[in-house]
Amino acid sequence: MNGEPSAPQRPEPSTPAGVDAAAWAPMRRAAADLTPARLFLGSAGLSPRTADALALRTDHAFARDAVDTRLDLELDSMQALGLFEVSSAAPDHATYLRRPDLGRRLSHDARTRLVRDGTTGADIQVVVGDGLSAAAVHAQVPTLLPLLARLSAERGWSWGRPFAVRHCRVGIVDDIGDVLDPEIVVLLIGERPGLGTAESLSAYLAHRPRPGCTDADRNLVSNIHARGTPVEEAAPRIIAYVEALRAAGCSGVSMKEPDAPLTRPALDGE
Description:
By secondary structure, this protein is an alpha/beta fold. It has helices at 21-34, 50-68, 76-79, 93-98, 100-103, 108-117, 134-154, 173-180, 231-248; strands at 84-87, 124-129, 163-166, 184-190, 201-207, 218-224.
């Protein structure tokens, strides 16, 4: 498939044998509103319906396309963010997929660029990583990043110049902390695509990360997309997490997600 992956249309589930169609419809609609999971699909004899089987193959193709989509900072929506780009130690996309360890380390050139163009010692440093779905970055980050910048400014936090990391894995926050020494690193990274969506983003948070830290030293707000946690809800959750981590002076499994404000921030232009 060519172009940006987008959510395909799924067939209407069939009504199970022996169940009145009118009685079944409200439950079917309620399930579809709550989750993109494949519920109440029905069957044709002992096999899935053809429409359901084709929809599954279509979603799988979209997921594969998302993994192969390259981060494009030349898109109008991405250019507006003013990101500069560095790379992990993975020299190309194929190596990145085969060698996750290289995606967790900055290249030598990336370290040099961050020293030259990055911000040292910021209260919050937001980083954009392609991860396993650049499509998620293209879909969510153009709205999420400006919201985080505005909410951080309202709190008087110093804001590190955001940048993008190509061929990025989550563990790269440790090298970023080593080079720039921010108090909090927030990594916005494309999640591994599933069969429900290929546009889901995660926000990983770490307090003063350094080489040798593990997943247990990080916190996470995940499932950021239209059918999961919308961007306007994710932004205050991330900011509330940053406040809690700064107050505690640590991050990781000892920290539970705090309650975020119930009112969403206004989007630009509202």
